[in-house]
Amino acid sequence: MRLQGLSLTLTFYGLFYHLAKTLVYFHHKSHTGYSTGTMSSSNHRRGMWKKDKAPIVPVTVLTGFLGSGKTTLMNRILNDTTHGMRFAIIENEFGQVGVDDKVISENVDEEVIEVINGCICCTVRGDLVEALKKLHKRVEQFNGIIIETTGLADPAPVVQTFFVDEEIQKCYKLDSVITVVDAKHILTRLYDKKPEGAENEAVEQVVFADKILLNKVDLMANDDATLLAIEKELRALNPTAPILRTEHGQVSPAELLNIGAFDLKRVLDFDPEFLDENQEHQHDSSVTSFGEKTTDEFNIEMFQRWIQRLIEEDGANLYRYKGIIAVKGMNQKFVFQGVGMLFSGGFQGKWKKKEVRESRFIFIGKNLDTEFLKSGLDACRVGAVLRFAIGDNVLANVGSWKKGEIIKHWDDGNAYRIKLNDSSNVWAPVDIDEYVRAVAA
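^ thats the sequence. predicted structure below, dont judge the formating
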């Protein structure tokens, strides 16, 4: 096996628990004619308040199945300089370990109000109501709210919140439900067979949409027939919602914000019992999850090997996976995400001086083996002291065995940097004999 440098492309998969957390952020974005920093109460009231009465705040619900591209779209909205809005963002994650709060745009000033176990469409709905009520006490700091639901949420109970709670009705107006669907996987998700009584969340997300973003169409670039078939299925479920084809969540915020698209009458037409708070709500119990956060650092080469094996063995059952990795010997964060056998990842931003180098992983899937996932991650951790000290003479495998000297530990994520006797440098990514071994006595 040849010695090699650091590979920056991985592939990944996973699972989770029926747990979630809701995070609230305030977003501040500079743009022409719009100041940054803390919005003063007087300035805010001149623009929105009437006779010292707080405004009714528009709310956008951003939904879509796991891996459809919701967080990417959210970051595009937050980084856009044209919409002139300040947002409070309610971020809901399905699992006890959150990742999105660590990768959401740095233009967001984070304020965690609640950390809640449960799904936003069922067990934590009451906490959503309380979070909204708390936020309205600070309404002078923002003029819009975006709620990003977990990918396994039925949007109906979330939408219902704005019509069955009198106090919420006085403070907020549901502006629209935006559903993001993954062009590569949406037909599979729509056709998923569910246990009796369990909802198909992907179907519910499409049905409740006021606008549908058919995302990741670049993955279907040479298959317009399939895209047309997808659009036909989506229109069969929801004949009135416009469908926009998008790549990487690229769409003008004007298509999504303050569009006044939600129509309660339309919902009542297809679901006359929509406002009945006692309707049953059941998830597919075969969809499980696994999450972990740790201050252990990881060997990127071992991690890559494990990912390849995971794809081969469990790829068909992997709905969503994402995480942030603290790579030994690297000052940059490796951020990854994926759906099924499609993966994207790379180094994004540096660890700050006083920031804890904490790795986080989230895996969501159907009938997945959590012990296999845990043992695989354990094998990728950097734990033991390296076998060779700096200055030791070794043999390096560069296709043939060459003599050299260890000159650095954990260089760019590699266990060793080795200076060969011909003065060239090579790297051993893993501390095993296949890459580097002791010189025979």
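The chain has twelve helices and 18 strands.
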